[in-house]
Amino acid sequence: MRGPLFPRRAVLALGAAAALASGACASAAPAKLEPLEVVTDKGRTRFMVEVVDNDATRARGLMYRTSLAPDRGMLFDFKTPRDAAFWMRNTYIPLDIVYIKADGRVLSIVRNARPKDETPLPSGGPVLGVLEIPGGRAAEIGLLPGDRVLHRIFPRD
Length: 157
Description:
The chain has helices at 5-22, 55-60, 137-141, and strands at residues 33-40, 43-52, 72-86, 95-100, 106-113, 121-134, 148-150. The chain is an alpha+beta fold. The chain has one domain (31-150): Jelly Rolls (Sandwich), CATH 2.60.120.1140.
């Protein structure tokens, strides 16, 4: 004879919640990607980025990801400029963290941030956005402070 369904459902629900909290399950819906361009002395480089623009999505960021394609990234939209500091808690891949001023110019870059490191990595001033791309890509494309990031959240000249 089978036992009651409620305990079985409760166990399944708790298991699913634990898997989601640990990052073991991927999101059911694929992330919406938007184009973003970076303009450097070497030329233009296009990325397709996930935009995170609320506290919950910004807090999770790229945590628990095990890979990130060279042409992918995540753009953090703070809506209003602020000082920012990122860390790499529960982040399994090295990242370049690009701090971007309200005018779309790069303020500073943290290159090859170490996975799982909880050391705060400050922006060095107020930023409207932060772009995370695979570690080493900023150097590959010649990205430097003062370079331009083109995306809908930054005003165009």
